[in-house]
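Format is sequence with structure; example below:
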Amino acid sequence: MNAQTPSSASGNTWSQPAKAAEKIAQNAETRFEAAKDKVGDALERGKSGVADSAHAAGDSLSQDVAKLREDMASIQQTLTKFANEAGGEAIKTAQSVGSTVASHVSEAAGEVAAGAKDAAASAAEHAKTFASELEGMARRNPLGTIGATLLVGIVIGMMSRSRA
């Protein structure tokens, strides 16, 4: 049996497709390596870009936080100043109101005292006048005065009995 191997029968029959396949495999491997390098480069650029962005954002954030601290300190100083000034004004206002009220109360008390004095003097004057009138009526009509006195006594007696 004389079997021929493909390579021995025609010499290069099987070797050409094998070489072509090998060449295709090498070409695919080269392309794969090139693609792998491109992907690696793209990843490196992406990492670098992200790192640069993070660094820039960190710097910006640090500056913003520092400015915020300065602003908060300024607000605190402003509020402290306002509270001190408002407290001082409130004390002045309270003192002014207190002295104004005391003055008005003093004036009103003086007026009330003067009014009370005048009222007492007027009441005393009216009492004297009434007493004088009663005395005059008693002199002009002694019997009527005795009858009126008796009638007033009876009314007072009846009122005191109803309470007891």
